[in-house]
Amino acid sequence: MSATEQTAAAELPGYQHVYSGKVRDLYAPLDPATGEARDDQVLLVATDRISAYDFVLDTPIPDKGAVLTQLSLWWFDQLADLLPNHVVSTDVPDAVRGRAVLCERLQMLPIECIGRAYLTGGGLDEYRETGAVCGVPLPPGLEDGSRLPQAIFTPTTKAPVGEHDQPMSPAEVDAAVGGALATRLSDLTRRILARGNEIAGGRGIILADTKVEFGLRGDPAAPEIVLADEVLTPDSSRFWPAARWEPGHPQESYDKQFVRDWLTSPASGWDRRSGETPPPLPDEVVERTRGKYVEAYETLTGRRFGG
Question: Which of 72, 111, 248, 292 would you label with 178, given CA atoms 20 to 30 Å apart?
């Protein structure tokens, strides 16, 4: 089944499809008494779709949705003492079992909360231009893969599918959510990053950076911050093998780098600047990418992935 076909969300008895993103489908549970969609819960289904360069590719990665879901659930347990999360139940329809979670519906915050412990990616590009990332000044002489003196909070906007998220300055974050809440988001993001590195480091993995999402629950005057969506997965974070970390060039990573590399190679025949949809992925790239996701899960959790 192609990713395009997967985009047509499955019919799930007892649920109403409400939204499909790049890689996730959302459903509202139906009230058995009234048949109406509930507004307090949502079924979050991770598909095997994969995106790159703002395109949802036509080739799925087998088991990717299950890996992301199971790894997020494991990390939610590791972070439970830092803050609550949105998980209500893993008792879900058989058709999506293992890759879906019933969640509390929250007031989601309009910010992608990013924490960086190492410099790479878009943060490196911005640093080379300005000497700072999202308004946070950094010392001179840093390279691709350099460890930062201390972790930094570098949030972005939440752009619609197909558009790029834009860096947000501290003043822009304050304007979006208020100064007090902005301070708490920065602290929580960096604490999640630190806990992730503490645990991953013991397993020979560096957590370079991560994106987390938060929602609010309870009294609007004094809301509780809740961790939502996914957390510390290869889709939302950069994981590097610690033994092969070497600043000065792009690092080997546990993510979809095989996909990116193939798409930008002559073998794909695709021009990233053309605006055209990327071609289907060859079997070897699919298999190696699946292998990286499974390796990340097994290395981090110490569990064997069962599919």
Answer: 72
Amino acid at 219: D
CB-count burial class (<10 Å; 0-12, 13-18, 19+) for 249: exposed
What tokens does 232 get?
A: 């510390």
32 and 126 share a domain?
Answer: no
* Residue located via tokens 């036509």: 58
Q: What angle do CA 115, 117, 119 make, to 5 degrees?
A: 100
What helix, strand, coil percent values describe the chain, rounded to 5?
Answer: 30, 25, 45
| Residue range 289-303, pLDDT digits in tens | 999 999 999 999 999
What does the CA dihedral 260, 262, 263, 265 come to, rounded to 10 degrees? 120
Residues 165 and 118 in one domain: yes
Helix crossing, 179-201 with 170-177: angle to 10°?
110
CATH number of the structural domain spanning residue 204: 3.30.470.20
Same domain for 112 and 211, yes or no, is: yes
Is residue 61, in this structure, part of any structural domain at all? yes
Amino acid at 52: A
Q: What pLDDT score does 162 carry?
A: 60
Q: What is the DSSP letter of 37?
A: B
Quick check: helix, strand or coil at residue 242? helix
Torsion of the alpha carbons at 33, 217, 210 and 162, rounded to the nearest 10: 60
Global model pTM greater than 0.90: yes
pLDDT at 9 over 80: no
Going by the DSSP 8-state scheme, the letter that residue 95 receives in this structure is G
At 250-301, the pLDDT tens digits run: 999 998 889 999 999 999 999 999 989 999 999 999 999 999 999 999 999 9
